[in-house]
Amino acid sequence: MRPGKKGMTMAKRPETTTARIRLLAKSGRLAAAMMAALVHASMNSASAANAGCETQADKLGVARIVEIDAQGGPIFGSYTKQEREDSFLGAKEVVLTFDDGPMPWITRSILDTLDEACTKATFFSVGRMALAYPEVVKEVAARGHTLGTHTMTHPFNMFRLKPDVAHDQIERGFAAVAAAANTPIAPFFRFPGLADSHELMAYLQSRGIAAFTVDVVSNDSYIGDPKRLTELTMREIERNNGGIVLFHDIKRSTAKALPEILRQLKAGGFRIVHLTSKTPMQPLPDLAVAMSDALAKAASKSGKPATLMPFYGTTGPVVSQSADPVATQAAPSAAPEGPNTTTAAATTTAGTMATATAANSAVPISQLAPAPRQRVASTKASRPIDKAEWSRATHKVRAGKRSRTIVLKATAN
Ligand SMILES: [Zn+2]
Known about the structure:
The chain has helices spanning 28-39, 44-50, 104-116, 127-132, 134-142, 163-181, 198-207, 226-240, 252-267, 285-300, 327-330, 350-356, 398-401, 404-411, and strands spanning 19-25, 64-69, 75-76, 93-99, 122-125, 146-149, 188-189, 210-212, 216-217, 242-248, 271-277, 342-343, 376-381, 392-393. It is of the alpha/beta class. The protein has a single domain, classed as TIM Barrel (Alpha-Beta Barrel), CATH 3.20.20.370. Strands 1, 2, 4, 5, 6, 9, 10, 11 and 13 form a nine-stranded mixed beta sheet that branches. Strands 3-8-7 form a three-stranded parallel beta sheet, with helices on one face. The longest helix has 19 residues, at 163-181. It is globular and about 50 Å long. The model is unreliable at 1-43 and 313-413 (pLDDT under 50). Zinc ion (ZN) binds at residues 99-100, 150, 154, 192, 413. Zinc ion is lined by residues 99-100, 150, 154, 192, 413.
């Protein structure tokens, strides 16, 4: 049983772990345009990715940008037994995330689909995959998406590893993806298999890294039929009324299903929230050098295409997809509660807001929701917040009622 399990005494993080989130409320079109500027002004592909998005209201787009201050090592998402931050998402807001890549023939298809919808996502890339396909990592960043990491080699049992081994997995993953991207990446991390632990969370906090679990599991690791994947994913998103959605950019079915999933999100009135980081990740200097050397060495072997395959699964350029496993066996158990109920929790006065956010007319998080823990502090927005728009999901307890076994079987992210 891990520390932090619901029902047990939660270890309080120190005050310094306060997660400050700047909520940049933007129109979808403006947000899409901003993302290109934020990543790399010189990246022509970023401009290309957003070409035409400013004038196409029929596109899914980006409804809002949430800038995460990872300094205190917060953890977001409901699939965790650790003490977590309140969700920064409102009703019908969705964060798209893709794990385990990059894999060129999958990731690029997903990037094209995201561009077509004028929307943005967060990619939790695996270090060794990044070293194998650095050009794809660069492309992810250049097209305006956020790059986080997912360890170096994707061990599923991180909480059982010796601490120094687990820490090395985390650090090498960041160093490898940052080296491959050749541009700063976000201090955003997702545990393989969502297998976090109190001890490893403490390490992330010491390094100023934010952890992200999920709210909705697409189960694309187990579902090979794009139509069925679309149906089940949308069912879960509807049931959860949005949330952080887990996909994998090493899965053929994901790439095939994504256009229809995005179309249905738009049709269903869901809005995309794009995550950015207030500050970039600072990889350990020695590992940064080592990863750059590894990349240079690999590049010297010109003409040799990378042959790295996924660390699990059957996805590949020439491997035909086998029949779907029985999805009902892989699907998470039904949530004990229904779709998110929402609650208006505007308790902060306008005067407090003005005091807290003088510089940019932002809004503290206390206006958005009750602060159940001391470490939840300021959330800022660049425009006044509409109470209805920002009505918050009630605190989810589903993860706490889920057994670890079920979570691991269900996600294998
Ligand atoms: Zn994974």
